[in-house]
Amino acid sequence: MKHSIKREIALIFSAVMAGTIILCLIINNSFLENFYIQNKRHAIKDAYSRINEVVTNGDITSEEFDIELRKTCDMYNIGLLVIDVGSNIIKSSTRDADKLLRRLYDNFFKPSSDTVYLDENNNYSLATVMDKSTATEYLEMWGILDNGNLFLIRSPLESIRDSVKIANQFLAYVGLAAALVSAALIWFVTTRITRPIMELKKISEKMTKLDFETKYKSRGQNEIDLLGEHINELSSALEKTICELKTANNELKRDIEKKEQIDEMRKEFLSNVSHELKTPIALIQGYAEGLKEGISDDDVENRNFYCDVIMDEAGKMNTMVKKLLDLNQLEFGNDVVTMERFDIVALVSNFMASADILIHQNDITLRLACHEPIYVWADEFKTEEIVRNFFSNAMNHANGDRVIEIKYRLIEDENANRVRVSVFNTGEPIPEDALPHIWEKFYKVDKARTREYGGSGVGLSIVKAIMESMNQQYGVINYTNGVEFWFELETK
């Protein structure tokens, strides 16, 4: 990753730590030596005050003073010399007392030009002095005690510089080790911090691809976990919103398709109606004009014929308009389907009894299968309309032996229990190329024959619309000696 927050945090902490260590080294190099010298000056002044106090109030030659003196000299790495006015050595912290004695005389009588005075009063002088014999720089104090004895206290500055150098080296080593250990700890800590952040990153990437299955698993109650919980809530809200949008979009598509379908059906309806009404309107207009012009005034029989034609064509137009209105109600979904439980055998038998006069007028031989009651679930009124249309179609197309046969067949399978009602009529089978179109509005296989019996070409379209509104199956079967139309209804 080009800009990893883990790497950035680790680099920032490492840089801060390295800067801190470097700053400490700079401060040590700049101020530690002066701090040591200042501390040494206080130690020398404390030693002077102690010696002066013992000389004034105690015994400088006592064993207790020797012990305390050695402890002070060893602790602060200082040398001490006390002499009387006769140059006799009263107290010395080192075996090389003569060297200290020469240094004392030189400071009093032959001060060096390299001497840098740090503090000076009537009792003592404190300065840095270069010992030319050893080329070593010392911090020295010399003067006169309250009892008149002379003293010299000194400490080498080289030891201070060595201590500073060692301290800086030690600090560098410790700093390097601390930097390495801290870098590892920082990497570990940042890994723990950034792990949930990376998890949230992956979740957000999936959300951009509309994948809302992955959820953040909270490990505590820190800010990152609270962010993860909010992202989970955001994911759920987005998923719900997208589902609602998809549902609304799907409904919108269906509405658009339905509107387009309705528009297309409206255009088709107007075209077909204008086409179907053209002939009867022309006939009515022609015969009405003939009556107006008095063509048949002298012939009552012709006048009655003209009137019969006009009435017959008007009746056909009225029937067709009613059927078209019923069909439109079905196709537009405005007609409610009422599911009822009724006996289909009784319904068919009652209809055939009412159509008995038509059967005799058309010289039809009806074969109605005797069957025990079969109860079905369907819209009883619309089912009777299907039977009426199938029977009218069979009666109008019956030929040859002029037989119409109605049968029932119970079907039981894993999908449903249902009954198939079929209406068969003898005559010419429907041409194969016409079978896919017979359910279309105004489609007529034999237009001359349809015109002869006054058919509108809407009956089978009504059957199709009714069956589809009840979500049931229907169809037609060709035989060598006739045609069978059928429909199915559920019995349970």
Write a brief caption for the model.
The chain has 492 residues and is of the alpha+beta class.
Characterise the protein shown here.
- This protein has helices at about 5-55, 65-75, 95-110, 155-210, 225-290, 300-330, 345-355, 355-360, 380-395, 445-455, 460-470; strands at about 80-85, 90, 115-120, 125-130, 135-145, 150-155, 340-345, 365-370, 375-380, 405-410, 415-425, 475-480, 480-490.
- With about 500 residues, it is of the alpha+beta class.
- A hairpin with a 2-residue loop joins strand 12 and strand 13 (about 480-490).
- Helix 1 runs antiparallel to helix 2 and helix 9 (about 380-395) runs antiparallel to helix 11.
- The protein is rod-shaped.
Over all CA atoms, what is the radius of gyration? 62 Å
Query: What is the helix content?
Result: 55-70%
Percent of residues in β-strands: 15-25%
> What is the average of the pLDDT values?
79
- Would you list the SSEs in sequence order as H and E? HHEEHEEEEHHHEHHEEHEEHHEE
| End-to-end CA span | 65 Å
Structural class: alpha+beta
User: What's the count of strands?
Assistant: 13
